[in-house]
Structure formats: C-alpha cells, structure tokens
Amino acid sequence: MKDWWDRNGKPLVTGGLLALVVVFGWQAWQKYQTNQSQGASNLYQALLETTLTPTGEPDAAKVAELSGKLKNEFGGSAYAQYASLFVAKVAVESGKLDDAAAELKLVMDKPADATLGEIARQRLARVLAAQKKVEEALKLLEGDADQAFLASREELKGDLLVQLGRAGEAHAAYEKAKAALSDDAAIGGLQLKLDDLAKGDA
C-alpha cells in the first residue's frame, strides 16, 4: 500500500486539487458573468425609465451620463449597444444627425450579435438618407441579409431608390420585401407603396 501511495498518491492529490480549482473557478466565473449581466441590465433599465423629463421628452444630459456609464463598465455588451441605439434615437429627435450616425456606426462595426448589427445598419441608412447621403445609405444595404431582416431591408432599399427616382429598381425591391412577408397587414403597407409607384408610371 505504501509503495502504491508513493507511486500514485501525489498525482491523485494533484489531479483532485486541479479538479476543485476548475469547478470553483467555473462557478466564480458564472457568478461574475451573472453579476455583470444584472448590473448592465439595471443600468439599461435606468436609462429607459429615468431619462424622461416632466414633458415626456428624453433628458439628453441624463441619457449621455447613463449611456457613458454603460459603455465604460460594460463596453461591447448587448446592453451597452442597445444604449447606443437609444442615444442615436434621442440624437435624431434632437436633429443631431451626425451624433446619431456616429453612435450607430460604432454598433454596426462591432455588433454584440447579428440582430444588433442589422438594426444599426438599417437605422444608419435612414440617418444617412436624412442627411441627403442616399447613395451612401444604399451601399450599406448591399449584400445578403438574414431572412428575418430581408423584408425590412428590401423595403428600406425601395424607399431609398424612390428618393433617387429609380422607380423600376424600387418596385423590384418592394416586391422582394413583399415576398419575404407573411403578415397581411405588413404586406398591405408595401402594396400601398407599390400602388403609388404604379400611379407615378401611369
């Protein structure tokens, strides 16, 4: 027994200690991640709930303060990027299109996930169009979109093409958007756009 212990005891003890380190390390990491997520969630909730003035309008200073805190403490997280989308929305409503574009570009360039990336892309395209940079906005929408966003991207393309006076291409984009939808109410809205284009051709 002593001989066996001399040969195998140390590796067994070392292996057991390593296993304990891995288990407790993993639990600590999970707890840290949960705390981080909860902290980011609370800040984001505060951003949505406490930034309204008595008139119901967002308080730009409070928005900037909470958003900055989210970015500093939880940079790159989905919550920080949703905060950027909110900041961009407030900037658009305040007529600060350059600020909105900067926020959206940051999310689009390094999205926390594909959904955030596509939302930022489409919103940035709308901001650019409002800045009369319609060709630049259209370039953002080139390439394939995830099926979940195909309809909204193609409809937006159609809107931009209408602005550029390219009715034929706009019609094709609207038709592509319509084909990707199953919701009759949404299709109805697209049909109105298609009908308006048809009237323009008549």
UniProtKB/TrEMBL annotation:
<protein>
    <recommendedName>
        <fullName>Ancillary SecYEG translocon subunit</fullName>
    </recommendedName>
</protein>
<dbReference type="GO" id="GO:0044877">
    <property type="term" value="F:protein-containing complex binding"/>
</dbReference>
<keyword id="KW-0143">Chaperone</keyword>
<keyword id="KW-0812">Transmembrane</keyword>
<feature type="transmembrane region" description="Helical">
    <location>
        <begin position="12"/>
        <end position="29"/>
    </location>
</feature>
<dbReference type="InterPro" id="IPR026039">
    <property type="entry name" value="YfgM"/>
</dbReference>
<keyword id="KW-0472">Membrane</keyword>
<keyword id="KW-1133">Transmembrane helix</keyword>
<dbReference type="Pfam" id="PF09976">
    <property type="entry name" value="TPR_21"/>
</dbReference>
<feature type="domain" description="Ancillary SecYEG translocon subunit/Cell division coordinator CpoB TPR">
    <location>
        <begin position="2"/>
        <end position="199"/>
    </location>
</feature>
<keyword id="KW-1003">Cell membrane</keyword>
<comment type="similarity">
    <text>Belongs to the YfgM family.</text>
</comment>
<dbReference type="InterPro" id="IPR011990">
    <property type="entry name" value="TPR-like_helical_dom_sf"/>
</dbReference>
<dbReference type="InterPro" id="IPR018704">
    <property type="entry name" value="SecYEG/CpoB_TPR"/>
</dbReference>
<dbReference type="GO" id="GO:0005886">
    <property type="term" value="C:plasma membrane"/>
</dbReference>
